[in-house]
Structure formats: structure tokens, C-alpha cells
Amino acid sequence: GAICFLTIAPASTPAESIARTWNEELLAAVRLSFPDPPVHSRNLFHVSVAIYDAWAAYDPTAVGYFHRETATAADVAAARHEAVSYAAYRLLTYRYSTRRHPTTSDDNALAAQANFDSRLAALGYLASNDITVGDSPAAVGNRVAETIINFTAGDGSNEAGGFTDATYTPVNDPLILEQVGTIMNDPNRWQPLEFVEAFSQTGQPLEFTIQSFIGSHWGDVWPFALSREPGQAVYLDPGTPPQLEGTGDAEFKAGVVEVIRRSSLLDPSIGPMIDCSPGKIGNNTLGTNDGTGYGVNPVTSTAYLPNMVNEADFGRVLAEYWADGPESETPPGHWNVLANEVVDHPSFERRFGGPGGPLLDELEWDVKMYFLINAAVHDSAVAAWGCKRAYDYVRPISSIRYMGGLGQSSDPNGPSFNSEGLPLVPNLIEVVSAVTTQVGGRHRHLGLGAVGEIAIRTWTGEPEDPATQTGGVDWIFADNWLPYQRDTFVTPAFAGYISGHSTFSRAAAEILTRMTGSKFFPGGLGIHEVGALEFELGPSAPVQLQWATYYDAADQAGISRLYGGIHVPVDDGPGRIVGSMCGIGAWNLGIQYFDGSILNEAPQLTVTPLPNFRFRLDWRQYRGLFYKVQRSPDLQNFTDEFPFVRATDDRASYSIGLPFPTPNREFYQVQQSE
């Protein structure tokens, strides 16, 4: 679709920073790669760290995250330009070419590498300059990348094994899309889909036809600012979602009804015009949709102008724009694009923390912005996918087909009753009767044989020619329902609870709010205009998505998944809350690296003797820090170093053996890595 950010370009646009240059290369590589949100969140963060650590090496105050060294240069600006370029180039090459995602095509990996090579050459640097020894900026950048590649190889992502996880097995057999209905062993648990022909969310053909749970192990990947107690399975646990025929049965059914209701609004031929301006929508309490907009634009002190949009077009545009479909940068990368657009606004001023804060140059702003936003989205992936694995929650495609196939759960004395069936809602969810199938009846096209079946009024599915046709809305059999998505994609290959879109988006919104010192977009208004859809013809007229605040944009990302039939409301609200905690946590920790105060955090270590001359080291966990353990026969001279240990590792302790039996004379200390 044609998507653009509506701003008035400044008379003269300053040259983009070298951090922005490599961020754009990173986003381009994501668009060419298999759409695996957790993997891309990790890559976005680690490449941003590479850029930050190379920049910080030449800063007298800032402290590197993965790699720490102090570098000097006669021309610091030139040295940073070179060091950042080599650090980013090496890590991008490794992540998107050398060790690319296993389902990314060879052609796409080659295209990504060609882009990296071309960019480095255009900057005047040599790809063959892989030196890691010495004081040159190239050596600094190469060392940064080498540190990150080596250290994060064991971060729990199973990079060496193609990010796979052999420990997960779905409890439900696949939903065969070619057939009607579905059978579920547990209707509260995730069900993979089986396609005749499958494509990724970015439109790439897939070799497999049955989904595997993407990122089922991601809750154990090293985070940035998250911490949990030993034995705690989930970071920021939102609690068990409502269960069909269990605790929260009514809420479960209401959520399914809400998805069907939103799908019933996607016919532009009957959609009413509604005001979608910030004067009417947005300004929600965290985790809810209770907002009624804003009285005035706080920047201009005037009311927001009405933004009249066909309701069906609004829902369809929301679903497609935020879906991050073909050739997109995926949901976590989407917020890098938004952040870049914010900075490009002609009235934007790079004051860190808002008015009164220090005015940063382009490079320093971008370096810190990418570090913080991508730390937040990386933590969001760890937190959200931890929940997805722990709760293994069902998607609407399975719920609606399963429940609709069983019957209705509203009237025990009525036809087709089943306590696990769909609730009846007039003009939305109904039992087909002999009357409604007669000539002129609303279910007449379903046929006399449909009597007793459950019919729903909903989007009818992708049309034969999406370029010239719409699916529209009509009555269909509930057990044949499809979400507003491509037939070859339908629903992501992982569990629903909690929504990644909601978590990623709110986390990034928290960072932008704190960095800019305001929750409002520059000028009090962010706008995206969409002129063409991908799934079907439309919209009827160009649609403007308008947001007063970053939070409003994040909330729309969450709501979009209901229109798209991907999530139920309970996936969305808790996702926003968890995302908020991820964003605030990443901010509070991240800024300590900028001013060096992170070095003031010290772990509390307890050494416990164990049999066979071994010791157990227990520490109080500190977020984001990496430690090394040193041993010496006296307190003044620490000599032998043990490998790094991660403060937020699942293990609360490490057992370390001694090469010689003198435990009573050994002393230990733990310090941050240099």
C-alpha cells in the first residue's frame, strides 16, 4: 500500500548521522529476511548496541554495554564515523548474511549483503579491513562487533541451531484450512495451521505447510532490563487469560464475539462515516480503550479538526498498516521507522528529555535513541514470548471455528446448544432456521441444509482479485471463518497471549515519550496516509491515521489486531501494560550507561563452600549487568578470571571448581566486565 508520513520538509535537511545510515540498512535487511519478530528484535538491539558501544568508546562519560574500551583520536567525529560503520557492518553481515535466519532465501541474503557492501564502500571504507588489533577506528569497530558476536552466541536464542526449539510440542493437531471447522484437544491452547501453500507474513513462499511455534523458547533469551527471581518462569507475568469452560468463561466468549463484531464492520459499501481524529479517539487509560480524545491540541492550543473516514476503510487500513506485511520491517522495526520520522519533523529539537534538557547533535541523539528503543523492543519480545510459551493461548481462527462448529451457548432450550458454543448475538451470531433460509431470508444463500448451523455476519474472505474486488461482509458458516488477512498467511505461527504488537508498541512509545519530554508527536499530531490496500480493493478514499500521542499510536497498533482477526481483547490490554513496564525499565537502566552511573551498581556476592573443593557463587541479580569472577590467594592481587556470568541468567548461582585444594586461602570478587 502507499504509505507516507505527512510532514512539511524543512528548507534544508541536514545530512543524516552515520547511526541513522546504518539503522536504515538494518531496517532494509529486516525487510528482506524471514519475519521472525523475536529474532529481529534481538538483531535490532544488538546492532544498536554495536553502534552505541563504538560511539561510547570515544566518549569520556558514556559506558559501553557489551564492549567497553577507551579510545582516542585526533578527530573524534571522523573516528566515530569509521568505528560505528565497521561495528554495524560486521554485525549486520554476520546476522543477515553469514548466519542468516534459516528460512530467509539465499537470494535475499545475498541482496542484503550486497547492500551492506555497497554502503560501506560508498562511505569510503574497505570490507577487507577486518583488523581487530591496534588503535585505529576500524579496529575499534571490528572489536565491538567481535565482542557482541561471541558473547551473545550463548544468550539462549539458539542462534547456532537456527533459533529453533525442540522442547515445544503443540497439544492440538493442526487446523487444516482446506477443511471446514476444527478439532481441538484443548480449546484454550494454541493450534498450528496447515496450509496447502504457505507464505510468510512478508509474502515469501515457505517450504513447510504446517506451522511451528516461532520463538517458543524466547522467554529464556537474555534480556536487557528485565529481571526475575530464580525459578520464576515469566517476566512481568500478566496472569492466566480467561479459559473456555473455566475461570473467565464469559470473558473468553465476549472476546471472541468482539473479534467477529469488528470483522462485521469491514464492508466499505455499507460503512458509515466516522470521526477518527484525536479530538474523538485516543487518550486511553493504559490497557483500555476508554479514551474519548483530546479537547485541544496542546501544541497549537486549537481543537483537532474532524477526520471523517469510512468506518470499514478505517478498520481495514488499521489492520493492514500495523500488520507490517509484505516487505515490511516487522512490528519492532516499525517503531524505528516512526522514531526516525519524529526526528525528521521540521519543528523537532533534539533536547534529551525535552525542554531544559541538553541539546544533542544528530549522531548522539540517534545513537541513544536506537539503543533505548531497541532495548525496549528486545525486552518486549522476551517478555511477550515468555507469556506466549507459558500460556500457549488460542488464536481467534481456532476459537471461532471450534465454538461455531459446536453450536450456540446462549439458550439451553434452543436448537444447537452446546456450553462451549458461540454466544448468540442478533444480526451477528445466529442459528440458521427454516425461516431465515427462505426466499428473502438473511441466510437464504446458505441453503436449507444449513438449518441448525451457526452463522456469523463477517468479512467473507480474500476476493479472487484483490486489486479490483472486496470481500465484503455477509452471513457465512462460523466454522469456516477467516480473519482479515491473506489466505496464504491467516495467522502468525505462535500463541496469542500476549500481543507482540501491543507490547512492542507501548514499550517504544514509553521511550519516545521520555526522550522527547512529551507524549505528543511534534506539532501535537502524527499522521500517516494510506491510499491503497494489499488484501483487497480500497480504501474508498485515502485514509489518514492520526495520533496525538505516541501512546495513541501504540494503542491503535494493538486495536488493529482485533480488526485483523489475529487477537482477542485480552491479548491486547495486558500486552500494553507489559510493554509499558518494558519501556520504562529499559529507559531507567539505559540512561545509566549514558552518564556512567551504571558503574556504581555492585553485585552482592555470597561464596558457599561445596564438596570436592568447589564453591557456589550466589549474587543478588542486577539488571543488564555482566560480571566476571576473579580468584586470588590474597585480596589485593586478583589473577585468574572465570568466564563471564550473566546477572539475569535463570541460574541464581554458579558452581566453580578449583585447580588445587586450598579452598580456605581463596578469595573471590565479582566485578563488571571491562
Query: Helix tally?
Result: 13
Shape: globular
| DSSP strand content | 5-15%
User: Whole-number average pLDDT?
Assistant: 89
Beta strands, count? 17
Report what the structure shows.
The structure is a single chain. By secondary structure, the protein is an alpha+beta fold. Helices cover 34% and strands 11% of the residues. Strands 13, 14, 15 and 17 form a 4-stranded antiparallel β-sheet that branches. The protein has a 3-stranded antiparallel β-sheet with strand order 1-9-10. Helix 11 packs parallel to helix 13. The protein is globular.
List keywords for this structure.
alpha+beta, 3-stranded antiparallel beta sheet, 674 residues, disordered C terminus, 34% helix
